[in-house]
Amino acid sequence: RSKPETIKPILDDIEEQFDLDEEALTSITTQFLADFNHGLSEYGEAMGDDVGPTFVQGVPNGTETGTFLALDLGGTNLRVCQVELRGDKTFTLRQQKYKVSEALKTGEAVTLFDYMADSVDAFLTSSPSGVASLPPSLDEEEKDPLPLGLTFSFPVEQTALDQGYLLTWTKGFSAKNAIGRDIVKLLQDAFDKKHLHVKCVALVNDTVGTLLSRAYTAGGCILGAIFGTGTNGAYVEKVQNIPKLKNSATVLRGDDMIVNTEWGGFNNSRTVLPTTPFDNKLDRESINPRKQAYEKFISGMYLGEITRNILVALVDAAPHPILFKGKASDALNQHYGLDSEIMSHIEEAWNSEAHGPTAEVVTVKLPVSDETEHPHAEKLTEKILLDFTKPLTAATIEPHTLHRLQRIRSVIVARLGYAPEDVSLRDAAVVRWACSIVARRAALLSGCAVAVVARQMGFVKGLGKDAVSEGEGPIAVGVDGSLIQFYPQFEATMREALRLLVGETIEKRIDIGLAKDGSGVGAALCALQAVKQQ
Ligand code: ADP
Fold it and tell me: Is 206 a known active-site residue?
């Protein structure tokens, strides 16, 4: 075995690499702000240059009315919705999901867009009450076409509210003859071929949808942010601060415009992010090395993989293993074999009530060494969890802590495919520690992104120790994504960073709320904007 006293320093060293103090957070945020402003000014290849005007020039306040169609092309499903905005911050939504097969994802783009049109057709035909806004007596041709908003969350260079050119496919899509084409035109051509009386009036990014949808239900919103498979945000900017727009052919109709930050791509040159060997391994083995650098520190797709890299390194530690007696399960050996959802479960197991096992707990027979009684050992607290010089057994820790570790062990057995006898209480403690340092860093960095927007919009002057708050009243932020919804303490930790970066006054004013049905309601609201802006 490794000498017990040599192990704690190894873990401390890893933890230090993941640690972000106030100074680090401030310098990261300052650099983002600079990258970001550069992105607002120019198109190009440098950091932040994917920052994109969206041509959405108004934010709802909850009084909007009308019935709109929304189409959402996500990873696995195509969703068609009919959204009725009631004008009192509430809405009704009818929706249908249609599967997008591998053949559609990878075949000809025309086939994919024909399928989208077919799905809208099927949805309209199946409508129980017809489309509410259309009086049935009118002749088809005399009616205005039904306005539809398309939520399309792939990188697009948007040139008008209803025009955007696909830059690249992501998330397993590779349909041919789409890159460089106008997505709205591809969809409209498919509608027209089928003589559908539907007009695609708006192309919406999911972050913009999140912002608009929260604005509608909260009566206003300044930022829409996604913390799910990926991460991104969109916020409201002054047109005069977007020099990129100077060559735009589109006539602008207001002083504000929503900007898609594409913040997942910040710091692609990695000059400010504290990159560890575990991050480098992830990046090197990813399909997009040196791209989406910030996203790789933050989002659901990657957190599990960073954690897996730490655990594998501890399993392989020389001269002697630190974890799982040197054994790696199939899941642990598998690239992306540890989902961030498992991290959530591990943290939940740790946070759970002390007593009374729940149905989730798999009863695990303790390995003999763990059950050996140490009658003279003091019952110690959590401090000994990572102190390998002290025995960690049922006899040496409080029942509360023991119970939590046993629950974690159950998750490891159930979700990482380990035999119970290969998972000691110490292993459980180490796994939970690894999850917590990776997730904590992600949540703190997420706070930097929100701070950049608060600073950019002038809610605060200066950052860190120089932060001075401006104005008063709530600052509504709409969020979506499994990570922020389900990961224990994610928002609380994000707020910790915000307090350091923009001060407590602003942090308290920031009102984070889930954007319910963001992509459907957001696309409907965007279609409404488009009709207004026409
Ligand atoms: P998307 O971003 O694709 O629209 P989600 O917001 O559901 O979808 O995010 C999916 C991502 O969130 C996946 O990477 C998955 O690993 C992760 N995830 C799912 N459930 C949880 C959870 N309970 N805790 C943390 N992460 C989760």
Answer: yes
